[in-house]
Amino acid sequence: MAAPPPSAPGEPAPPPPPPLQYSLLLQHLVGDKRQPRVWDPAALGGIPCPPKSEEQKMVERVMESCPFKAALACVGGFVLGGAFGIFTAGIDTNVGFDPKDPYRTPTAKEVLKDMGQRGISYAKNFAIVGAMFSCTECVVESYRGKSDWKNSVISGCITGGAIGFRAGLKAGVIGCGGFAAFSAAVDYYLR
Q: How far apart are CA 52 and CA 18, in angstroms?
């Protein structure tokens, strides 16, 4: 710190500056009086981004629409379900097993046929569940106007309840709670 300029003879010396109070400084840096910084990338040079063309805007609108999200979840569920079905059939010891003749070894053709049937069955179920969940989540998000964890919990409850309701009211309630809890856990982990 620079020394104050010398005063002329006969003039009173200027008062010394007040001592720096670190508690006030800390309140402004990390305390309650801290002001949030507005981070504007354009002010720092930013990344140059040309304006979007009409075709890009149209593609974004299509990709954010509910039917596209539901179709994508349906296709993804079909692929994932098929892979899961083939995997579970591969580790199942009863694949190709004939209950009429338990000592006969199944042929490769019979085993592959059974694996394919199980893969298709799982694929259809996963596709339906994925499409239902994605569609209800998109509808709930559109209705609420927010994108948060509550959307996935509500749509999980609707999807689980609809699937479980085929077996009765109690199964519907359990399905609603189970899917909602699973959706909340997945959403908590991914966000």
A: 55
